[in-house]
Every structure is written in structure tokens, then in C-alpha cells.
Amino acid sequence: MTTDAEDGKAGQLFEDFLKEQGTYEETTEQAIKRVVAFQLSEAMKKEGISKVEMAKRLATSRSQLARILDPDNDSVTLRLLARAARAVGREIRLELN
Fold first, then answer.
1. Tell me, what's the pLDDT at 59?
2. Which of 21, 16, 35, 12 is nearest to 81 (CA)?
3. Which residues of 39-53 are buried (b: 16+ CB within 10 A; e: fewer)?
4. Which pLDDT tens digits describe the chain residue by residue (97 residues)?
5. Rounded distance between C-alpha atoms, residue 6 and residue 21, angstroms
6. CB under 8 Å, gap of 24 or more: what pairs does 19-28 form?
7. CA atoms within 13 Å, Cβ hemisphere of 81
8. Of 92, 93, 74, 75, which Cα lies nearest the Cα of 83?
9. 20 to 30 A Cα–Cα from 90, which one of 32, 33, 46, 63?
10. For the whole model, what pTM was predicted?
């Protein structure tokens, strides 16, 4: 006997649960922001870029950079995230499924 998790259906069941609760979109947006913030932080570490240097590259304050890197701050625009990605030699890619 196999379970849904063993059949690879656990992710789909979780998505269905979030949709039923009416939180799917919000949860997905939060997860994406957390991943992007993590990836920016990791890229900064890999490239040896300090927060002071990153703020200079973005021509912004350290407090604004802190908001960009804060996974819980959802007020950061896509434009700003794209600028931050370019500052560490990366790019943001979006796609519609």
C-alpha cells in the first residue's frame, strides 16, 4: 500500500488545501519573496558583497536594502528586486504557467 506522499501527490494535496482555505495566492507570493531574498543574500555572500557595498550599488540606504532582503517584507517592487539581482550579476526571470 502506498500513500499519497509516496505517489508524489502530497504537493498537489497541499496546493488544494491552500486553495480551499483561500490562501494559495498569498502563500505563493510570500514563498517567492522568501526565495528571492534568500537567493540575493546567498549571491552577496558568494560574491563577497557587503551590505554597505550592495546599498552603494543600488544607490540606496542600508535600511532600504534590509527591506529588500527581509523575506517578510512584501512591499518591495519587482523593479527593485530586478535592480538588486543585476547588482549581484543575476537576473530575475518570470514565467506564466
1. 95
2. 35
3. ebbebbeeeebeeee
4. 445 555 666 667 888 888 999 999 888 888 889 999 999 999 999 999 999 999 999 999 999 999 999 998 988 888 999 999 999 999 999 887 7
5. 24
6. none
7. 20
8. 92
9. 63
10. 0.77
Which residue bears the cell 544607490? 59
Query: Do the beta carbons of residue 50 and residue 56 sit within 8 Å?
Result: no
Size of the chain, expressed as the number of residues it contains: 97
Nearest to residue 13, comparing CAs of 21, 5, 2? 5
Q: What angle do CA 67, 53, 38 make, to 5 degrees?
A: 45
Distance CA 4, CA 1 (A): 10
